[in-house]
Amino acid sequence: MKKDWLKYLGYATAGIITVKLIMNEVSDKASAERIKLLHPRMRPLAVRLLQEAKRQGINLRITAGLRTAAEQEALYQQGRTKPGAKVTNARPWQSYHNYGLAIDVVPLNQFNQPDWNSTKWKQIGAIGKSVGLRWGGDFKSIVDQPHFEIGPPIRDLIAMQLAKKVDAKGYVRIA
Question: What is the CATH number for 44?
């Protein structure tokens, strides 16, 4: 019934959450634009993370979501063949970002600027876990506090992608 009502009002459904409603649910335009590109199963969880953080007095911005293979390769080469510190162990298609199933966030300070040195990372991690996300702050190899993800193991995502078990928009079909 809810889907019929939403269609009547002109909202196109995209998985659990509607794309048109994202802008109403998320005040940060950059975050809303990134959410729209996420896998349909990830969108409502990303929105819930931002909403619950805001309810607890933390304004978050999504800094990364869906990532191309080329973007992933560039990040992988950082600290290896390119200047900078290593930021990932994931090569292209070995990252949940490549499937739209991961986001990176940063808390914003009172001037609406990113605060990468925030003391609230553990609280943010707990909020993410409470809405059903896996938190990169719990990772063993490279601790990645801004990172949240969902989905089956990467090997399963790769197999689904290779078997073309994707929807019309190219998202892997996950339950």
Answer: 3.30.1380.10
